[in-house]
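Progress note, sequence design subtask.
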């Protein structure tokens, strides 16, 4: 990733209640918000607004048939996206969420079509990062059922592990005011269902892939 003078970057938003509420309202309005998770930064939009989700694909340069993970604040919220929700899935998520586990379930018809890339299944995740959870809870209060959120980088590039990387990545590609930045701890990042790499290599998003675990009927785990 090309380095530029950090003094030229706009400041991320602080993760205080006022800005968390403001970001939630942005999602409700169909705009994009970059936010930290316990792994990497995500670029989010209301998963139920296909036009908003299309802005993610456009900003990233990502093919629209590549599904996006939908982030939720809790398991009950996730059920609104699922056509089936078995007891084994519920028991697994009671232990694993919040956390970096994505569960793939049959998608409820007519819900999150664009986020799922038109597929009949949908990936769901409840992150454990306190800012991400606060954002998702605030979004739910204003009527956002879930947030589609791939990593906040251009398609094929390194996933961002600090707010500065997100700002640098999208400043020239997303209209001013369309992407708001939330502050969060900057450090080593890893994709969901992975282990973080050595300290000091957060710039690279270096990760060691963890062994995959079996998933109960009606769902499968994914990295």
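Output:
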């Amino acid at each position: 990733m090309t380095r530029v003078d950090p003094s030229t970057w706009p400041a991320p938003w602080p993760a205080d209640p006022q800005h968390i509420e403001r970001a939630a309202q942005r999602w409700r309005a169909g705009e994009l918000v970059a936010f930290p998770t316990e792994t990497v930064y995500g670029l989010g939009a209301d998963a139920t607004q296909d036009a908003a989700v299309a802005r993610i694909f456009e900003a990233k340069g990502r093919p629209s048939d590549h599904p996006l993970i939908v982030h939720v604040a809790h398991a009950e919220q996730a059920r609104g996206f699922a056509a089936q929700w078995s007891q084994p899935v519920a028991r697994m998520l009671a232990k694993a969420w919040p956390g970096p586990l994505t569960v793939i379930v049959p998608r409820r018809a007519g819900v999150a079509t664009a986020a799922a890339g038109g597929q009949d299944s949908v990936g769901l995740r409840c992150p454990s990062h306190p800012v991400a959870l606060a954002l998702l809870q605030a979004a739910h209060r204003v009527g956002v059922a879930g947030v589609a959120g791939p990593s906040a980088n251009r398609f094929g590039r390194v996933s961002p592990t600090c707010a500065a990387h997100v700002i640098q990545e999208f400043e020239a590609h997303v209209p001013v005011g369309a992407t708001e930045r939330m502050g969060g701890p900057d450090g080593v990042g890893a994709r969901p269902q992975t282990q973080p790499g050595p300290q000091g290599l957060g710039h690279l998003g270096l990760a060691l892939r963890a062994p995959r675990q079996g998933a109960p009927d009606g769902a499968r785990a994914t990295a």
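The longest helix spans residues 17-28. Work on this subtask will continue into the next period as scheduled.
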